[in-house]
Design goal:
The complex is a heterodimer of chains A (about 300) and B (about 250). Chain A is an alpha/beta fold and about 300 residues long. Chain A is about 35% helix and about 25% strand. The radius of gyration of chain A is 24 Å and the shape is globular. Chain B has helices at about 5-20, 20-45, 55-85, 90-95, 100-125, 135-160, 165-180, 195-200, 205-215, 225-250. The chains are: A alpha/beta (about 300), B mainly alpha (about 250).
């Protein structure tokens, strides 16, 4: 089976800035793939190059086997991109916007799918409203609908939940998860790492135009061995000397442990000192900690 | 997979865009040109007679119509592109599988359509109080269409090149306006001193206006066949340049 996306040694420079420095990446069909990195890492440049908005200086890119430059017509029909910026055409209504976008892909009679998209994205009531009259969240949903209007098998979402409220975010993820279950390949960039952790099966981390980590989400989480223990003590509880330095001003203690056996040692120390525990939480490192660690080391 | 072209939709979108604000894009330019006609024909009719058998008003109307066609064709493609670039919605036409030739054709045809609509509107209104001749309608159509196409093409170049509205305004005010106003809309170049007459021959808009006017009154400063060749040559050159800009993605695909 052809990979959904193939990126081979892609480089792009904007003046003095090397936005992409020889990126290699393969995304398999049906994956929910995360593309993470700090601002300026090259995520949007990589997506733009895939979509034909940016011309790479070197390298090759393919969507489902179709070169994005030499065979751009095929490649673009297979790709749907939700841009990061909240852009819209103020001359048209929501339905006109979707009809026009549909027509750009050669689809003239696409009304049933447009209605389905409006319904899924809770926009039916706004179908005949001018784009200018919509709230930011609604405009974001129209952008999602525009990216899906030609039923692309590969969908790229460039920070789709930036500045979006919780309700819309959850609704959007439910919809995108459904698309992924139906076989669509999803590529997501986001600064909300908890979203990437819960949604993405594999993740690539970019820094200064290079991929510095690429693995399954679970393997990335396993990179940081050990466990996290968080304790909250009752006010006025005495502290053992060994833990005193780890106690925050709010009375919480955060400890990184190699094994669960060490929990027992900590609890014994507290008991001997006469401290009373109000709350305790044992967990594994999250993607945010992994991300910080990867960025620090690379 | 459905592989039909997106060109008809892009053309439809560009037509719908100006049609939705028709008061601003069609009615207003007609009124402006009408004011030019009323003022100039009233002031100059008794003093100027360019051709013995043609009244000044009958001479002026074709020039004003052509000027409207040209200015509105330019305004259509240039404003559409600069607005899309500044607001960022240009991505909606860059993401789909549209070729650069389809892009060019859609923007140029929409610009021609607006220019010709304004021109037709102005003719319809002036026909009430100026007796017009219709000497050779095929020349009128040929020069009207080619003139609209040339300025529509120039509008695409300006829209692609300009990053800000004031850069576009500079293009319009320092290039398009002088070329159109100094093209013999209000006078015959035979009434100019030798130096300015020679300079006028290097202005391609002069040939558009002169040939277009010939279609009405049957008289011109230059043979209409030669003018048509000059105008067609200009279009081919500008179209080639525009297609090259679009193909390379200049200022559109970074």
């Amino acid at each position: 089976m052809q990979p959904a996306i193939e990126v081979l040694q892609v480089a792009k420079r904007f003046g003095a800035v090397q936005a992409l420095a020889g990126v290699d990446l393969t995304v398999r069909q049906g994956e929910f793939f995360g593309l993470l990195g700090p601002n300026g890492a090259g995520k949007t440049t990589l997506i733009s190059a895939l979509a034909g908005l940016v011309r790479a200086d070197a390298g090759e890119m393919r969507i489902m086997g179709h070169d994005v430059v030499a065979d751009y017509r095929h490649a673009r029909r297979l790709l749907g991109v939700v841009p990061q910026e909240l852009v819209f055409d103020p001359f048209f209504t929501v339905r006109e916007t979707l009809r026009i976008q549909s027509g750009y892909f050669g689809l003239r009679d696409n009304e049933r799918w447009i209605d389905a998209l409006l319904d899924h994205l809770d926009l039916t009531g706004k179908a005949d409203a001018n784009m200018r009259s919509l709230s930011g969240g609604m405009k974001r949903r129209v952008l999602v609908a525009q990216a899906l209007v030609h039923r692309p098998p590969v969908i790229v979402l460039d920070e789709p939940t930036a500045g979006v409220d919780v309700e819309l975010r959850q609704g959007l993820w439910q919809f995108v998860r459904g698309l992924n279950r139906d076989g669509h390949t999803i590529v997501l960039t986001t600064h909300y790492l908890e979203e990437a952790e819960s949604l993405c099966g594999r993740i690539a981390m970019l820094k200064a135009g290079r991929i510095v980590a690429l693995d399954t989400t679970s393997n990335l989480l396993d990179r940081l061995s050990g466990h996290r223990l968080r304790l909250r003590l009752a006010a006025g509880s005495p502290l053992p000397e060994a833990l005193a330095a780890r106690c925050g001003s709010s009375g919480t203690i955060d400890l990184e442990l190699r094994t669960y056996d060490e929990v027992e040692d900590v609890l014994r120390l507290l008991k001997v000192a006469g401290a009373r525990i109000e709350d305790m939480e044992v967990g594994r490192p999250d993607l945010e900690q992994v991300f910080v660690e990867v960025m620090r080391k690379s | 997979m459905n592989a039909r072209s997106g060109f008809p939709t892009l053309l439809y979108k560009e037509l719908l865009r100006f049609w939705k604000v028709g008061f601003q894009t069609i009615a207003a330019p007609v009124v402006t040109s009408l004011l030019y006609l009323l003022i100039f024909s009233h002031v100059l009719a008794a003093h100027v007679r360019v051709y013995e058998t043609v009244s000044y008003s009958a001479f002026l109307v074709p020039g004003l119509v052509m000027m409207s066609v040209l200015q509105n064709a330019f305004a259509n493609s240039s404003s559409s592109l600069i607005q899309s670039k500044v607001t960022g919605n240009i991505v909606f036409v860059l993401l789909p599988p549209l070729s650069y030739a389809e892009f060019f054709a859609a923007y140029t045809l929409a610009a021609m359509a607006r220019g010709l609509l304004v021109g037709a509107g102005l003719l319809a209104v002036t026909a009430w109080f100026v007796e017009l001749r219709w000497n050779a309608p095929h020349w009128i159509l040929a020069f009207g269409a080619l003139g609209g196409a040339i300025l529509g093409t120039l509008g695409i170049i300006a829209g692609i090149w300009a990053d800000k509205f004031d850069q576009l305004a500079a293009f319009q005010n320092f290039l398009i306006m002088p070329l159109t106003f100094l093209s013999g809309v209000f006078y015959s170049i035979h009434s100019l001193p030798e130096f300015w007459r020679t300079i006028s021959h290097y202005n391609p808009v002069f040939y558009m206006v002169d040939g277009f006017r010939y279609g009405f009154i049957g008289m011109s400063d230059f043979p209409p066949g030669v003018s048509l060749a000059v105008v067609a040559g200009c279009f081919v050159g500008l179209a080639g340049l525009t297609l090259l800009l679009l193909k390379t993605g200049y200022k559109l695909r970074m």
